[in-house]
Amino acid sequence: MFLIDNVLLAPVSGVMYVFREIQAAAEGEAVKNAEALRAQLSELYGMLESGRISSDQFDAKEKELLDQLDGITRVNEGGNDE
Questions:
Q1: What does the pLDDT read at residue 82?
Q2: Residue-by-residue DSSP string for 28-72
Q3: Whole-angstrom Cα distance, residue 64 to residue 46?
Q4: What is the average pLDDT value for the chain, to the nearest integer?
Q5: Could you tell me the CA-to-CA distances from 24 to 7, 44, 46, 71 in Å, in that order?
Q6: Which of 36, 55, 70, 72 shows the greatest Cβ crowding within 10 Å of its Cβ?
Q7: Contact 37, 65 (CB under 8 A)
């Protein structure tokens, strides 16, 4: 009986495996994107401190980066309300 169950459920198990792999890849990509945004924020703070950009330029770019980071965080937590 278990052999028949395994044969009948094999297609479903294969599809579930593919979905798990896709999810893992997407989560890995989101982590890389979040790390890149944090690096950009760090560079932005350095540019402000060194006087290479104005406070207004800093505020605009910081808001943009923080919004992107917030979006990634919301999606990763499963609370995408958009």
A1: 43
A2: HHHHHHHHHHHHHHHHHHHHHHHTSS-HHHHHHHHHHHHHHHHHH
A3: 17
A4: 87
A5: 26, 30, 33, 18
A6: 72
A7: yes
